[in-house]
Design a protein that fits this description.
Blueprint (H helix, E strand, L loop, with lengths): L7 E7 L7 E4 L6 H7 L4 H12 L14 E4 L4 E2 L4 H4 L7 E7 L9 E3 L9 E6 L9 E4 L2 E4 H18 L3 E4 L1 E2 L18 E2 L3 E2 L4 H18 L5 E9 L10 E4 L4 H21 L9 E3 L4 H5 L3 E9 L3 H8 L1 H20 L2
Parallel strand pairs: 7-10, 7-14, 14-17, 15-16
Antiparallel strand pairs: 1-4, 1-5, 2-3, 5-6, 8-9, 11-12, 12-13, 15-17
Helix pairs in contact: 1-2, 4-9, 6-9
């Protein structure tokens, strides 16, 4: 199970000087993440800059086109030298603090510190459904896909972003053997549990009540700290209905409204930057009728990522690059919300 005891390690990072920006040609099957990894760079660190530099040659502002040449932003190559060579590093080598979290999976377990902008803040992250309830179902490439797997993957990616900025993060729904996945089709299982290791009830009311009690108990134990709750779902409206990302909050929560509005405005700005020919139709609004919105104590926002039954939304949901971008944009909205307090 996930623990909050942080194992600190140090990674030597050598800055590589570049006279000019490097270019690389996309091969069939390449995504932004895989393309950047091939260049020896952490793709999450320069994802936004890459999109901004290459927007005119990206399909839907996030997809590579095979055969096109793309510009690689300047970056610092991460290396892990052997023990004997650490002593030989020059004095200008910068050491970065990092921590490992098994819940993110072997490939993604290392979280490199970006800042302490959220230090002392507490965030509760709840991905929709899980355990015996897979949530909304859809079909992609002839395979059944479920809401809970994609909501969970986005939630893990968001948790990693928040941790990188010094936050304390509670992942309320957990699957110890999934981790962050870079596949398009995420296999369905039913072994998720509720924090710290509680069986998730089949009954919907019991399931929601369990999550409310967990969050409210943790909220009480962290009394006096800055606390926020983010709930992530993938909508299941009619098959033909394509939706943008929506944000809900409690009508009587000033802080919840501000959180929802901050993330919404971040998404609006990103769409204007990366998809100038397409307006953003997502909204933020009060939705007190939702059980978790009504019953939980922390200021919160309830996010609907898209419609898992709609072919256009599926493109956004199944692409790991898109899931990473969604998580990063949510995290930027969280930073905006806190720093405009």
């Amino acid at each position: 199970m996930f623990r909050y005891l942080i194992l600190v390690v140090f990674i030597a990072q050598a800055a590589i000087g570049q006279e000019s920006l490097k270019t690389v040609t996309a091969e069939p099957g390449d995504g932004i993440l895989s393309l950047l990894r091939k260049q020896g760079v952490n793709p999450y660190e320069i994802f936004d800059e890459f999109v901004a530099l290459n927007n005119h040659d990206l399909r839907d502002s996030v997809h590579l086109i095979a055969g096109k040449t793309y510009v690689i932003p300047k970056f610092e190559l991460e290396t892990v030298p052997i023990v004997d060579s650490i002593q030989k590093q020059s004095t200008d080598v910068k050491k970065l603090e990092s921590a490992t979290y098994a819940i993110f999976g072997e490939k993604h377990k290392t979280v490199i510190a970006k800042s302490e902008r959220l230090k002392g803040n507490v965030y509760y992250l709840v991905s929709g459904h899980g355990g015996p309830d897979p949530g909304a179902m859809g079909v992609y490439a002839g395979k059944t896909i479920s809401e809970d797997e994609y909501a969970y993957d986005i939630t893990l990616r968001l948790a990693k972003e928040l941790l990188a900025h010094g936050a304390m993060v509670y992942i309320i729904i957990q699957d110890e053997n999934d981790g962050i996945r870079d596949e398009r089709v995420l296999e369905i299982d039913h072994d998720e549990v509720a924090y710290p290791n509680k069986t998730i009830p089949l009954n919907q009311v019991a399931r929601l009540k369990q999550r409310v009690e967990i969050v409210n108990d943790l909220y009480k134990s962290n009394k006096g700290k800055y606390q926020r709750l983010i709930v992530t779902h993938v909508d299941s409206r009619s098959v033909g209905q394509n939706i943008d990302v929506f944000f809900y909050y409690h009508e009587n929560s000033k802080n919840g409204k501000k959180l929802a509005e901050s993330i919404h405005s971040t998404f609006d700005a990103k769409y204007k930057k990366y998809q100038p020919n397409r307006s953003y139709a997502g909204t933020f609004e009060d939705r007190t009728s939702l059980y978790l919105v009504k019953k939980t104590h922390p200021a919160m926002t309830f996010i609907e990522i898209g419609n898992i039954r709609n072919a256009k939304d599926q493109v956004r949901i199944v692409d790991p690059d898109n899931r990473q971008a969604l998580a990063k944009w949510i995290s930027e909205g969280v930073l905006l919300d806190f720093e405009e307090e």
